[in-house]
Amino acid sequence: MDNRKFLPIIIIIVIAAVVIIALSSSIFYTIDAGERAVIFYKFGGGLDKENVLTPGFGMKAPWNDLYVYEVREKSIEEKMDVLDKNGLSINVDVTLRFHPIYDQIGYLHENFGVGYVNTLVIPEVRSAVRQVMGRFSAEEIYSTKRGEVEAMIKTETEKSLNENNCEMRALLIRSINLPEQIRLAIENKLKQEQEALAYQFRLDKEKSEAERKRIAAEGEAVANKIINNSLTPELLKMRGIEATLELAKSPNSKVVVVGSGKDGMPLILGNN
């Protein structure tokens, strides 16, 4: 049997195998857990934004480009200097947790590319922090309205990221640092305000106690007046007779001394 006629076929198979091996990294791909990908078709269709590739093994034409995105939650920390509404410089330390919206990776890639963290996320966070803090004074940001400032920054950042195919998981303002002189002035003012409130509380408490005593005294005076008006000579005489009768019921021997005059009351003396 002449094997020479199979030689061209063998050569073609070997060449094809070499080509496939050489281009394997361009043909075969694996998307890991926590990743998504999109394909750019160079010779038709362009970027396929709708068909987001999920984790697994796949094949593509070697001339098409695969863009893989990690969709696990990311965290960035930003330290920045911003100005309050009076132009005072404030140093802010912010932490943001976020991830791309899984089924919108194609749109994220089209608008911002794989470097979206630097071109989208960080600028939006910085912009929201600057805009919101520019509406408040340093004292409000540092003390009375810190919670409101944080809530507004979260709302504006979340809205902006969602509109650009990212989901914000959390935004934390870890610290707000003012110039030392300004910070001490604000803390001293807050301390004085607390002392004034405490003093006012004591005054109000003392006024309430004085009012209570006044009302109690007035009530007692009215009661005494009523009692005095009701103690007529006839009533007192009747009460004395009732007390004498009660004493007379005692089994002990007694000596009764009858008082003189029309208002004289009997006096009972025991033999002991």
From TrEMBL:
Q: Where in the cell is it found?
A: Membrane
| Ranges where the Band domain occurs | 26-190
Q: How does it sit in the membrane?
A: Single-pass membrane protein
Its keywords, alphabetically, are: Membrane, Transmembrane, Transmembrane helix
- Name the InterPro entries on file: Band_7 (IPR001107), Band_7/SPFH_dom_sf (IPR036013), Prohibitin (IPR000163)
SMART domains under this entry? PHB
Q: Does the keyword Ribosomal protein apply?
A: no
Q: Where does it mainly reside?
A: membrane
Membrane-spanning parts: 6-31
PANTHER family for the chain: PROHIBITIN (PTHR23222), PROHIBITIN-2 (PTHR23222:SF1)
UniProt name for this protein: Prohibitin family protein
Q: Which organism is it from?
A: Fulvivirga kasyanovii
